[in-house]
């Protein structure tokens, strides 16, 4: 016999949970700008309320309504092992029992630095910081201090954190005109940041010609992943290296996303290149806040206290973040996690290519290793201007169907999908079915 009281109590609990989630969204909007601590989380570009997350495990993430999603955000990259890997959790617990922060060097900082150097031989010395933004900001200052030059060249559509000098894009189609992409950035700051077009080596040559002897460094995402996934054309990165050498400028690889993801040694291992300075983050902290920058010893020795370039941080090398990083990198090594995540992505992309063949004149899939983006655009997507031609209205509809069917992807056309070693074949098959359904509904 059915107990009506139990049914009423269950419905009441579900309603209370739903109300609580809605209440949290309202409370967040009252106390945090936009209700979030990073803009993309607000879901504004897809005209939806943000999701309030309660927990995550493996390939799954759970919202405050206890809805389960297969997660392809993976905290925008750090969770290569999946969420709450026991080895990382145990390392954090054990380390926290000995104290949270000391304002002094610990043995584990050396261990993590040596682990990074093992896979990134170009990083002869490194310094730990608290985020990718901080790593890039410090690397830029170091490049200027080392070379004695002021200008930095970046690429349109490449994101290097939110420091003032990196929030600059080209204006009105003129790649040599530096225009801030945020209020609050002064003209004096933006004038020293030059913007070239990704995959266009001539645009970089022109900047060197017009700023002869003034460019300290060129910074690049070797695989662009912050305008969606955009791959470097064959020979582009090699030509960029040659150009910097000819002009006595440094080259900085921002591998905050690609480091320990596209291969153990990042994009520089994949493309067999050796940058002067590398910036890391995300995976090296296993989901805790951390960053690092490093490179040639003669460059790194320009940092204080042994050199003239100042850089510091109260929480740099935080013991708990470092412990999480060590546990993560060791687990990635032991599990062959990079290959597993790559295999998962390859299975997904290969099957999507087959299943969505009739839509090949409407969408483009860019992928490398365990990163991919489905662009709502016909034809190649090779640079920022191609990305800007995508149909965001179609993406919005696609995203809404996906999340309602239990797929948690980034709420923006201009982000990557991240796979992990925790994604199972069942996850992937379910995802294939839902993506196919979503694409068909978008175009039919």
From TrEMBL:
This is Glutamate-1-semialdehyde 2,1-aminomutase. Its cofactor is pyridoxal 5'-phosphate. It catalyses: (S)-4-amino-5-oxopentanoate = 5-aminolevulinate. The lineage of its organism: Bacteria, Deltaproteobacteria, Candidatus Acidulodesulfobacterales, Candidatus Acididesulfobacter. One of its GO terms (molecular function) is pyridoxal phosphate binding. Homodimer. It comes from the Bacteria. GO terms for biological process: protoporphyrinogen IX biosynthetic process. The gene is hemL. It is found in: Cytoplasm. InterPro entries: 4pyrrol_synth_GluAld_NH2Trfase (IPR004639), Aminotrans_3 (IPR005814), Aminotrans_3_PPA_site (IPR049704), PyrdxlP-dep_Trfase (IPR015424), PyrdxlP-dep_Trfase_major (IPR015421), PyrdxlP-dep_Trfase_small (IPR015422). One of its GO terms (cellular component) is cytoplasm. It comes from Acididesulfobacter guangdongensis. Its EC number is 5.4.3.8. Pathway: Porphyrin-containing compound metabolism; protoporphyrin-IX biosynthesis; 5-aminolevulinate from L-glutamyl-tRNA(Glu): step 2/2.
């Amino acid at each position: 016999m059915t107990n009506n009281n139990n049914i009423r109590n269950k419905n009441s609990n579900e309603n209370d949970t739903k109300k609580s989630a809605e209440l949290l969204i309202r409370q967040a909007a009252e106390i945090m700008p936009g209700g979030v601590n990073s803009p993309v989380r607000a879901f504004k570009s897809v005209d939806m309320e943000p999701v309030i997350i309660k927990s995550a495990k493996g390939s799954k993430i759970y919202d405050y309504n206890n809805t389960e999603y297969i997660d392809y955000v993976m905290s925008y990259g750090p969770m290569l092992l999946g969420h709450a890997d026991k080895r990382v959790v145990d390392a954090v617990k054990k380390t926290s029992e000995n104290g949270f922060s000391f304002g002094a060097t610990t043995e584990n900082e050396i261990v993590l630095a040596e682990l990074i150097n093992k896979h990134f031989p170009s990083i002869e010395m490194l310094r730990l910081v608290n985020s990718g933004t901080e790593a890039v900001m410090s690397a830029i200052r170091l490049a200027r201090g080392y070379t004695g030059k002021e200008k930095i060249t970046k690429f349109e559509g490449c994101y290097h954190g939110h420091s003032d000098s990196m929030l600059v894009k080209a204006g009105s189609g003129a790649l040599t005109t530096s225009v801030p992409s945020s209020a609050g950035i002064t003209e004096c700051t933006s004038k020293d940041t030059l913007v070239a077009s990704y995959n266009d080596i001539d645009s970089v040559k022109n900047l060197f010609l017009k700023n002869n002897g003034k460019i300290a460094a060129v910074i690049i995402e070797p695989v662009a992943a912050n305008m969606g996934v955009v791959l470097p054309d064959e020979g582009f990165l090699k030509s960029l290296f040659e150009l910097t050498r000819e002009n006595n400028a440094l080259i900085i690889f921002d591998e905050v996303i690609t480091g320990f993801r596209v291969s153990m040694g990042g994009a520089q291992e994949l493309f067999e290149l050796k940058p002067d300075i590398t910036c890391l983050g995300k995976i090296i902290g296993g989901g805790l806040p951390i960053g690092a920058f490093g490179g040639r010893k003669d460059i790194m020795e320009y940092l204080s206290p042994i050199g003239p370039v100042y850089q510091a941080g109260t929480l740099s090398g935080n013991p708990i973040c470092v412990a999480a990083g060590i546990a993560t990198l060791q687990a990635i090594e032991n599990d062959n996690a990079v290959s597993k995540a790559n295999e998962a992505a390859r299975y997904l992309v290969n099957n999507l290519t087959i299943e969505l063949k009739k839509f090949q004149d409407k969408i483009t899939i860019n992928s490398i290793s365990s990163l991919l983006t489905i662009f709502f655009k016909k034809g190649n997507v090779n640079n920022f201007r191609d990305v800007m031609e995508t149909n965001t209205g179609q993406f919005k509809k696609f995203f809404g169907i996906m999340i309602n069917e239990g797929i948690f992807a980034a709420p923006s056309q201009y982000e990557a999908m991240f796979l992990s070693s925790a994604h199972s074949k069942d996850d992937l098959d379910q995802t294939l079915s839902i993506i196919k359904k979503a694409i068909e509904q978008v175009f039919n």
